[in-house]
Each structure stands twice: as structure tokens, then as C-alpha cells.
Write a structure and sequence with these properties.
With about 675 residues, this protein is α+β, with helices and mostly antiparallel strands. The model has no long low-confidence stretch (mean pLDDT about 95). The strands form 9 sheets. It has a 7-stranded mixed sheet, with helices on one face. A 7-stranded mixed sheet has the order 18-19-23-26-28-27-29. The chain is about 20% helix and about 25% strand.
Length: about 675
């Protein structure tokens, strides 16, 4: 079949399994998984370690149409070895489209894995609606994966036509940054630190540890996959996976790691990170020259200084190129006629993050947290291309002329030239109803209007107008203004309809419109955009509750301590959606109607919903006429729920988008919700 993994082919007639089988989950401690299904095939995965001195073994995988394996349609050997950490990948072909299958692995003694369930994609002429979930940012050291339990509970009880077809995990599947409990004896924020991951060869940076080699990266995957809720989810649905930053390094870019404002070569760690991801997440990713995808075969690299960058900021040092090209993750997943999921890599090819540079600190004012004048960020993002190639030598801010440290550098790119060309071509040629950009980071602007703060405060805004967020790094397409405009101009020029972006990374829920500019410039959306809350990693509101002092002058813009509420509310939601006047009124009166009446209409026409404190996941339903995106928000997941449904919900809210034609604007509305949406609308 040309894929290069271990392979199995479905036979014409099913048969009763004749294999001796005794389930022994203890021998398959990370469970089973399936990934990247298409109409007729799917990739299956497990791990069966041996500790008896052998270096390799052979398992058998069976695929059936029923849970009892009375109708087995395929059986094949699956090779495993210590060299691949005892993981295996088997591509099963010849399957029927839009069909549920069951699979299991067994060893020579008949000891078997838990059962797995997978689903093939619908055919291109299948008119039925598409349903899938998207999610990101699970941290088993800091939180519980209750969202998976809720998702499983709901799906098991849904009628077949309403069940999920697949799960799109948008990255931060692991957090390579690990804190040990002894370093946080009182926990962090509201959370206890679990003693789950310890690195044999880890490096300590500040108060956390990071992996340094392949063994360390494998350690963290094995620890995460012992989580029962994550393991159950992988056994129920095929996953489509893409890495974000933490699969490699918190502020990593290309083959570099950045700590304390300094980038250092880390090509060996980039390769190790790619290898561990490849081994533990079954996906149809590509290797150089079409090499076998049964095993990784890492390139030999050294950690060499990168001194030469091309015009797009790509480091041309040979070890850097070998490291970033050791695995190509961007790809398209087709799901019937209605969805092309076009997935991009936001870190392997990006240029240096301008807003993570030490020079950026001269623009940061403690009183405004991460808010920086929008005009400053636009100058820095565009670099030497600003104002038609005439960038200013300095930027006047807060009464001081600050050197423009980006005036000789190219505009920021997150996608890189080659990937961006591929992405635009996929958008142009897609025949799907909905062209869905699977972007692991956010695209919607994070901005505020501190220019509307009343006079007389001890804190005065010195920008010319609106503020945008410069962090925390790594920055995303909300401030990659130049590249985002290039993409959205292409969509407008090519008259592409049905464009939607789904994102993660921000640890918050967002819904709105894809537009390259906001007022006072022309607001011309070309699509819609959604961001899902984190599964379990801490969010910004949680941080505000612990780091902002009660006498902080601008506290009402971030947290509202209303006498009518038992806990602080996320005023930052109102700040981003309605502006500072609304926040100050709500802090004064607690009257939501009065506060919203003071909304700044030019601040956020791109936003329909924002919840900076939300955890959970999102569900997409798409057909020939509309797309619905439901946010399922759970309470802060501090401990694992004992309930079968994963515990209570904070809210559900569904955003409805009718399909628009190429000369019309997209329209979004909230059509249903349960629970308290708070200050999110």
C-alpha cells in the first residue's frame, strides 16, 4: 500500500477468531490507539514491552466487525522491538467506509491488549453530517482528564448518527516541562503537583525540569498514557494528532530552545522529540524521501550553532534542517464531502518570535501585564517590510524613543515558506464544503481599549490607541499580522467560502470571525474561527486569581470581586469582548446590563464569545448547509472525578454558522446554551 508501516488487508468474508486470547492489560500498559483513518484504512497502535532480555518480538493484530470477534475481517503480524520502545504501528486497508471496527493485539502466548474501537472516514459522496471533537493542552502532572470521561459518557449514549467520527488532538498532548512535588510542596495555584514524571537525564531550568534525550521524552509519553481517561478515549475513537510546542520545547522553534531570552541549539532534542511523538501517536506523517514509517530511523545530528538564516528566518545550518525535516506533520484529513481538515505545524518552520526577544522587555509595562500598543506590535511583526519597506528606526512609546530592533529582519512567519505554499494550495483546490484550518495556536485578536480608561488613575495608557497582547510566548497568528493578512487576502482573492479555523493552545474558549484587520481599519471577515479550552492545563484566569494583588490598580479589568458572587469572575472576558468601560461599570454596580450597554462597538467585532477560564473540548457538526461548534466546559479539573460522566458541567454553548457564498460575509449566532456563560458574551 506504499505506506511503509506493518500492514494488514481486509478479506472479503469475515470469520470467527481462532486465536487464543486472554486480556492482560497489565502487559500493554499504555493501551491501544488508532489514528488518521481514511475511507478504506486506519493506522493501529499498541505497546507491549518485554523485560526478559529479548530485543524484538511479534504480536498479532485482529480487526473485526464486532466486539466479540465473531466476524474478523483482517489479521496480521505486528513487529515490535526495544529499538522502537516496544511500540508498533499497523496500517489496516481494504475496509469499508464510514464503518465501526474493533481491534486487539495479542502475543505468542495469547496474552492480549484491551479492545479498541475505530471508525473509517465516510466516502466523498456520503452526504451525511460530519461530527468530530477537537481539544488540546492536557497536563497530567497538574490536573485531571475529566473532559475525556464526559466526552465518552455523552458519546456512548448518543444515537449512532450523532456519535463522533474522530478526535482531533491539537497538541500539547504532553508537557515536557515537569515540576516535581518537592519543588512545590504547597502545590501551584489551586493544584497539587503529582509525582508522575521524573527524568533520568533531565535538565533543571528555574523551578522545572526538561527532557534531554530520547529516553526522557519516552518517559513522559508512557506516564501520560497510563491516565485511565486518556487511555479510554484513545481506545474509543481514532485520533488525528498534531504537535504544538510542548511535545518538543516550551519556547522551542525549529531546532532551537529558548530559555531566559536566549536561544540555544538543540537539534538532538528536536529529533528525540519527533521520534517519541512518532512512536506513541499513530499518524500518517512523512519522513524524508518516503522512508519507512514502520520505524523512525533518526538522522544523526549535533547541537550546532545556527548563524545563517534565509530570507524567511529558516536556519540553514545542516543539522537544523535535518532535525526539522526528520518528521513532516502537516497534512490533510478528508472526511466525506463536507470537511477537509488542513493541519499545519506552527513551530518547526517559524522564524524567531519577535515578541519573545529580550529587546521586547523595553515595551512591557508591569501595570498593563502583557498589553502593548497595537501599533508597536504591527511595526515589530512586519520588520523590514513595514510601511512598504520603510520601517522606522525607532518607536516612540511612553515618552521615549526605543530602537526598532526588527527593522532589518523579515516579517514574522509561523508557517514558513514551503508549508505556507502547501497550505494555500490546499485551500485553493479543496472541494469540501468546509475548509477547516487545524491550527494548533489561536488566530483571533486578543486586544483591549485602555485608551478609554478614565482620567485620574495612577496608571495611564501611553499607546496611540488599542492594545494587543504580546504574550505569553510563543506568539500566534493573532500578532503575526503580516502572514495572517497574506492568508486571508488569498482567501478573499480566490473567493473561498466555508473557511473555518479551529485552534487550541490558549487554554480558553473563543468564537468569532477570521479577519485580517479590526476597526478603525476595515473589518472584512473571510471566515470563522474557534479556540477550545484546555483539557486540564491551568489557564490565565487561574493565574490572575493567585498572582494579582488585591490593590492592583487595574484589577477590575481582569477579575471582578462582586459582592453578589461567591468567587471572583473573569472580568478579562468582558475586557476583551466589551472594553474597559464595561469592566469598570460591572465592578462598580454588578449590573450586567448596564455594563454591556457601555460596550465599545469597535473593540471586538470579531468576537462572539470568549472565556479565558474555560476547560473542556469542542465538537464540530458540519453538513452541506451549516457548521455548528459546541463548547463543552467543565469545572476546573483539579482532581479526577469519581462519577461515570466525569462530573458536572459549567456550561454548553453552540455557535451556528450557515454556509455563505463567496461574495457574502459569514454570520455566527449562539443558538443554544445550558449553564452559566458568565461574562463570556
Amino acid at each position: 500500500m506504499g505506506f511503509g508501516a506493518g500492514a494488514a488487508w481486509s478479506r472479503d468474508k469475515s470469520a470467527v477468531s481462532r486465536r487464543r486470547f486472554q486480556e492482560r492489560r497489565d502487559l500493554y500498559p499504555e493501551g491501544v490507539a488508532s489514528g488518521d483513518p481514511d475511507e478504506h484504512s486506519v493506522l493501529l497502535w499498541t505497546r507491549r514491552p518485554f523485560a526478559d532480555g529479548r530485543s524484538r518480538a511479534t504480536l498479532t493484530v485482529e480487526i473485526a466487525e464486532d466486539q466479540g470477534f465473531q466476524h474478523v475481517v483482517a489479521e496480521a503480524p505486528a513487529k515490535i522491538s526495544a529499538a522502537s520502545d516496544w511500540t508498533c504501528r499497523v496500517l489496516v486497508g481494504g475496509l469499508h467506509s464510514s464503518r465501526v471496527y474493533w481491534y486487539r493485539f495479542s502475543d505468542a502466548e495469547g496474552f492480549g491488549s484491551r479492545l479498541g474501537r475505530t471508525i473509517t472516514a465516510p466516502a466523498r459522496d456520503d452526504p451525511r453530517p460530519v461530527r468530530f471533537a477537537f481539544m488540546s493542552c492536557q497536563n497530567v502532572n497538574d490536573g485531571a482528564q475529566n473532559a475525556y470521561r464526559r466526552m465518552i459518557f455523552d458519546d456512548e449514549r448518543a444515537p449512532p448518527q450523532d456519535q463522533l467520527g474522530f478526535v482531533f488532538h491539537m497538541g500539547d498532548f504532553i508537557y515536557e516541562i515537569v515540576c516535581y512535588p518537592e519543588d512545590y510542596p504547597r502545590g501551584r495555584y489551586d493544584r497539587r503537583i503529582r509525582d508522575i514524571v521524573r527524568y533520568a537525564n533531565g535538565e533543571k531550568i528555574l523551578d522545572f525540569y526538561i527532557p534531554t534525550d530520547l529516553a526522557d521524552y519516552r518517559t513522559v509519553y508512557r506516564a501520560y498514557l497510563k491516565d485511565p481517561d486518556l487511555q479510554d478515549a484513545r481506545a474509543r475513537w481514532p485520533f488525528v494528532a498534531m504537535w504544538d510546542n510542548h511535545e518538543y520545547s516550551w519556547r522551542g522553534w525549529q531546532g532551537l530552545q529558548q530559555f531566559n531570552g536566549e536561544s540555544r541549539p538543540a537539534q538532538t532534542r528536536k529529533v528525540a522529540a519527533n521520534q517519541a511523538w512518532f512512536e506513541y501517536l499513530p499518524a500518517r506523517v512523512q519522513k524524508p524521501g518516503g522512508a519507512s514509517l514502520e520505524r523512525f530511523d533518526p538522522p544523526v545530528v549535533t547541537d550546532a550553532a545556527i548563524t545563517q538564516f534565509d530570507q524567511d528566518g529558516l536556519g540553514m545550518e545542516p543539522n537544523n534542517l535535518a532535525a526539522v525535516n526528520s518528521l513532516t506533520g502537516y497534512r490533510t484529513i478528508a472526511w466525506g464531502p463536507h470537511v477537509d481538515l488542513i493541519i499545519t505545524d506552527q513551530h518547526s518552520y517559524r522564524s524567531r518570535d519577535a515578541f519573545a526577544s529580550p529587546e521586547m522587555q523595553t515595551f512591557i509595562r508591569k501595570a498593563f501585564l502583557d498589553l502593548v500598543p497595537e501599533e508597536v506590535l504591527k511595526i515589530l511583526d512586519a520588520g523590514r517590510d513595514y510601511a512598504g519597506g520603510k520601517p522606522p528606526a525607532s518607536i516612540h512609546y511612553d515618552g521615549v524613543d526605543i530602537a526598532n530592533f526588527r527593522k532589518e529582519e523579515p516579517p514574522q512567519t509561523i508557517l514558513g515558506r514551503k508549508q505556507k505554499a502547501w497550505f494555500l494550495e490546499r485551500l485553493r483546490t479543496s472541494q469540501a464544503t468546509w475548509k477547516v484550518w487545524g491550527n494548533t495556536q489561536g488566530t483571533l485578536d486578543y486586544r483591549a481599549d485602555p485608551q478609554n480608561l478614565p482620567p485620574g488613575l495612577t496608571t495611564t495608557w501611553q499607546g496611540k490607541g488599542y492594545a494587543a497582547s504580546s504574550g505569553p510566548p510563543p506568539s500566534d497568528h493573532a500578532t503575526a499580522f503580516t502572514e495572517r493578512a497574506e492568508i486571508y487576502d488569498f482567501i478573499a482573492r480566490e473567493k473561498i467560502s466555508g473557511f473555518a479555523t479551529i485552534c487550541g493552545d490558549r487554554h480558553s474558549f473563543w468564537a468569532g470571525y477570521a479577519a485580517k484587520e479590526l476597526p478603525p481599519a476595515r473589518f472584512e471577515p473571510v471566515g470563522v474561527a474557534f479556540v477550545t479550552g484546555s483539557l486540564s492545563a491551568p489557564g490565565l484566569v487561574e493565574a490572575f486569581e493567585h498572582i494579582l494583588p488585591k490593590d492592583y490598580p487595574l484589577l477590575p479589568l481582569y477579575l471582578s470581586n462582586s459582592a453578589h458572587k461567591a468567587k471572583p469572575e473573569a472580568a478579562v472576558n468582558m475586557l476583551l469582548r466589551h472594553g474597559v468601560r464595561s469592566c469598570l461599570e460591572y465592578s462598580r454596580s454588578g449590573d450586567l446590563a448596564k455594563a454591556r450597554a457601555l460596550s465599545n462597538p469597535d473593540l471586538a467585532p470579531h468576537l462572539s464569545f470568549v472565556d479565558m477560564g474555560g476547560h473542556g473540548y469542542a465538537i464540530v457538526r458540519a453538513d452541506a448547509n451549516a457548521m455548528d461548534v459546541e463548547f463543552v466546559c467543565i469545572p476546573r479539573p483539579l482532581e479526577r472525578s469519581k462519577d461515570a460522566d466525569g462530573g458536572p458541567l459549567r456550561y454548553r454553548v453552540t455557535h451556528h454558522v450557515p454556509l455563505w457564498n463567496a461574495v457574502a460575509r459569514p454570520q455566527m449566532s449562539i443558538v443554544s446554551h445550558d449553564g452559566d456563560l458568565g461574562l463570556s458574551v
